[in-house]
């Protein structure tokens, strides 16, 4: 797997430091609250786990699964709800955790879906924000890193479901996916 990586953007230590920074900021902002933390499957699993270890408040958690890549390297433009929440969010403070903000389509879809369910508040945290990839305006409250417009894998991010288990975020070599 490591041979398929052009370069490492963020090491395990970089990611740990970002989780600590974000955790401290979110803990401060949610003082006295008990939010529901919602992770967007599958890519968020590693980030959400590490981030939640840095939160110093009581919380519940749930997951939602949507798809827009359908195995490719770019968003298909169509977001599909694969698995809905099991928790009623009406009147709850909600923190939505994403792995990456790329085109913005998925996040806009989720913001509209969740807002329609009348949470008390809805804030978004993403580990990675790819500003050059934005095609829709999606508001994010907390960002770990701003990243270049390249195809990234590792730490939950995948290509055809592979590379998620890399302990870092790296740029996938174009020859790995160019002729697929």
From TrEMBL:
**Swiss-Prot/TrEMBL catalytic activity:** GMP + diphosphate = guanine + 5-phospho-alpha-D-ribose 1-diphosphate; IMP + diphosphate = hypoxanthine + 5-phospho-alpha-D-ribose 1-diphosphate
* Necessary cofactors: Mg(2+)
Q: Could you name the Gene Ontology cellular component terms for this entry? A: cytosol
- Its annotated pathway? Purine metabolism; IMP biosynthesis via salvage pathway; IMP from hypoxanthine: step 1/1; Purine metabolism; GMP biosynthesis via salvage pathway; GMP from guanine: step 1/1
- Gene3D superfamilies in UniProt: 3.40.50.2020
What EC designation does it have? 2.4.2.8
* Enzyme class, broadest EC rank: transferase
Predominantly, its location class is cytoplasm
Residue intervals of the Phosphoribosyltransferase domain: 12-159
Family matches, as SUPFAM superfamilies: PRTase-like
User: In which compartments does the protein localize?
Assistant: Cytoplasm
Q: Which CDD domains does the entry mention? A: PRTases_typeI
Please verify whether the record's keywords include Acyltransferase. Answer: no
The record's Gene Ontology biological-process terms are: GMP salvage; guanine salvage; hypoxanthine metabolic process; IMP salvage; purine ribonucleoside salvage
One GO molecular function term of this record is: hypoxanthine phosphoribosyltransferase activity
PANTHER family attached to this UniProt entry: HYPOXANTHINE PHOSPHORIBOSYLTRANSFERASE, HYPOXANTHINE-GUANINE PHOSPHORIBOSYLTRANSFERASE
According to its UniProt entry, the function of this protein is described as: Purine salvage pathway enzyme that catalyzes the transfer of the ribosyl-5-phosphate group from 5-phospho-alpha-D-ribose 1-diphosphate (PRPP) to the N9 position of the 6-oxopurines hypoxanthine and guanine to form the corresponding ribonucleotides IMP (inosine 5'-monophosphate) and GMP (guanosine 5'-monophosphate), with the release of PPi.
Q: Which protein family is it in?
A: Belongs to the purine/pyrimidine phosphoribosyltransferase family.
Q: What is this protein called?
A: Hypoxanthine phosphoribosyltransferase
Taxonomic classification, please? Bacteria, Bacillati, Bacillota, Bacilli, Lactobacillales
């Amino acid at each position: 797997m490591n041979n398929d990586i052009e370069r490492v953007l963020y090491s395990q230590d970089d990611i740990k430091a970002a989780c600590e920074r974000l955790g401290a900021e979110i803990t401060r902002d949610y003082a006295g609250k008990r939010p529901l933390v919602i992770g967007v499957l599958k890519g968020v699993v590693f980030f959400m786990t590490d981030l939640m270890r840095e939160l110093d408040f009581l919380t519940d958690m749930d997951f939602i699964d949507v798809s827009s890549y359908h195995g490719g390297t770019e968003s298909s433009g169509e977001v599909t709800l694969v698995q809905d929440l099991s928790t009623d969010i009406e009147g709850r403070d909600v923190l939505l955790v994403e792995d990456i903000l790329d085109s913005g389509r998925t996040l806009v879809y989720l913001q509209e879906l969740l807002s329609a369910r009348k949470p008390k508040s809805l804030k978004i945290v993403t580990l990675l924000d790819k500003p050059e990839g934005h095609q829709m305006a999606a508001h994010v409250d907390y960002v770990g890193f701003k990243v270049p417009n390249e195809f990234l894998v590792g730490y939950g991010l995948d290509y055809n479901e592979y590379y998620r288990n890399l302990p870092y975020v790296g740029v996938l070599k174009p020859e790995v996916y160019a002729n697929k």
